[in-house]
Automatic annotation (TrEMBL):
Native species: Cryptococcus amylolentus CBS 6273
Protein name (Swiss-Prot/TrEMBL): Metallo-beta-lactamase domain-containing protein
Residues covered by the Metallo-beta-lactamase domain: 83-297
GO process annotations (BP): N-acylethanolamine metabolic process; N-acylphosphatidylethanolamine metabolic process
SUPFAM superfamilies: Metallo-hydrolase/oxidoreductase
Pfam families, A to Z: Lactamase_B_2
GO molecular function, one term: N-acylphosphatidylethanolamine-specific phospholipase D activity
InterPro entries hit by this protein: Metallo-B-lactamas, RibonucZ/Hydroxyglut_hydro
GO cellular component, one term: cytoplasm
Length: 301
C-alpha cells in the first residue's frame, strides 16, 4: 500500500496521538492507589502497575538476589505497586537498530519519562516485540534515575539475543527458571516470583501461545514464543490481581496450510486449546491484554 493510498491516509487520522502519559498518577489523586493500572504505549507495549499493598507486606532488602526458593529480589521505592512492562518498543524505528520500518504515529513517551520499572517481559524475539535499542536505553535510564534495573523475563532460548546488553553476572536460581543476573529464561508453564522491596511480590508465569519466532531467515522457530501471566502474590494480598498478556498470539489451531495467504475463514478453524488450559490453571484474570489481527489468524495477532 503506497503512502498516497486514501485508505491509509484515512486510517492514519484514527491513530491516537497521546503524549506524556502520567502512568496512573492522576488516578492516585482520586484515591485509586489500590486499583490495577495499565498504560498502552502503542503496538504490544503495555505498562501495568499492580495495586498498592499494605506497607507491612514489604519483602527482603537488596538490589538483586536469588533465594533458595527461586524468587528474585529487586529494590523498590515510593508508594506504588509492582510495575511490569510488556514488549517495550519505544524507538522511532525497528529492526537492525532502527533501519527497518518507521513509526506511523508519534512515540507515546520518552524512555527517561518512564516510572521505575520492576519487571520487563518479552513475548518473542520478532523485532517489533524485542527491540534491543529500547531495552538498552530502558536499562541505562532506570539505572541512572533509580539506581536499579528491572528483571528481564524471556521465553526459552532467547538469552543470546540480549547477550550484548551486559545483564548477566548472577547464578542460576531455583524454581525451574534459567536465571543469570537480571535475565530469566522460562519454558511454558514455568514461573518465577519477583519480590520488590517495600512494594510487593509478583509471580511471572510463561504460558503458551500460537505464534512463531525469528530474528533472521535461518533461525525461524529456534527460540520459544509465549504469552505471560503476572499475578500479585505477596503477603497482605487478600484479593489477588492477575494479568494475562497475549503477546502476538493467534487464536486458531492450524499448524500448516498449503496456501497461507488464502486460509479458510477463521470461524471454520478449531481454536487453540492452550487458552482454556491457561484459564483453567491460572485464571480468572483481572485484565486481559489480547492482540487483534487481520492477516494470519493461525499464528499471529
Amino acid at each position: 500500500m503506497s503512502t498516497k493510498d486514501p485508505t491509509r491516509a484515512q486510517a492514519k487520522t484514527l491513530i491516537p496521538h497521546i503524549t506524556n502519559p502520567d502512568f496512573g498518577k492522576s488516578l492516585n489523586e482520586y484515591g485509586k492507589e489500590g486499583e490495577l493500572k495499565a498504560t498502552w504505549l502503542g503496538h504490544a507495549s503495555v505498562l501495568v502497575e499492580f495495586p498498592t499493598v499494605p506497607s507491612s507486606s514489604s519483602g527482603p532488602t537488596g538490589l538483586m538476589s536469588t533465594s533458595t526458593a527461586g524468587a528474585q529480589s529487586v529494590q523498590g521505592g515510593g508508594k506504588r505497586g509492582v510495575r511490569v512492562l510488556f514488549d517495550p518498543v519505544l524507538g522511532e524505528g525497528m529492526a537492525f537498530w532502527g533501519l527497518g520500518p518507521k513509526r506511523e504515529s508519534s512515540n507515546p513517551c520518552k524512555i527517561p519519562s518512564l516510572p521505575q520499572i520492576d519487571i520487563i517481559a518479552i513475548s518473542h524475539n520478532h523485532y517489533d516485540h524485542l527491540d534491543l535499542p529500547t531495552l538498552s536505553s530502558v536499562f541505562a535510564s532506570q539505572k541512572e534515575t533509580y539506581g536499579s534495573e528491572p528483571v528481564l523475563f524471556l521465553p526459552l532460548n532467547n538469552r543470546h539475543v540480549v547477550s550484548g546488553l551486559g545483564l548477566g553476572g548472577g547464578k542460576e536460581g531455583g524454581g525451574g527458571g534459567r536465571g543469570e543476573g537480571k535475565v530469566i529464561e522460562l519454558n511454558w508453564w514455568e514461573g518465577r516470583r519477583v519480590v520488590v522491596d517495600g512494594v510487593g511480590e509478583v509471580e511471572m508465569t510463561c504460558t503458551p501461545c500460537q505464534h512463531t519466532s525469528a530474528r533472521y531467515p535461518w533461525d525461524r522457530d529456534k527460540s520459544l514464543w509465549s504469552s505471560w501471566v503476572a499475578k500479585d502474590v505477596g503477603p497482605g494480598v487478600t484479593n489477588p490481581t492477575s494479568v494475562f498478556f497475549g503477546g502476538d498470539t493467534g487464536y486458531c489451531a492450524l499448524h500448516s496450510h498449503p496456501n497461507p495467504f488464502h486460509l479458510p475463514p477463521p470461524l471454520s478453524l478449531p481454536y487453540c486449546p492452550a487458552f482454556k488450559d491457561i484459564g483453567d490453571k491460572l485464571g480468572p484474570f483481572t485484565l486481559g491484554l489480547i492482540p487483534i489481527g487481520a492477516y494470519f489468524p493461525t499464528e499471529s495477532g
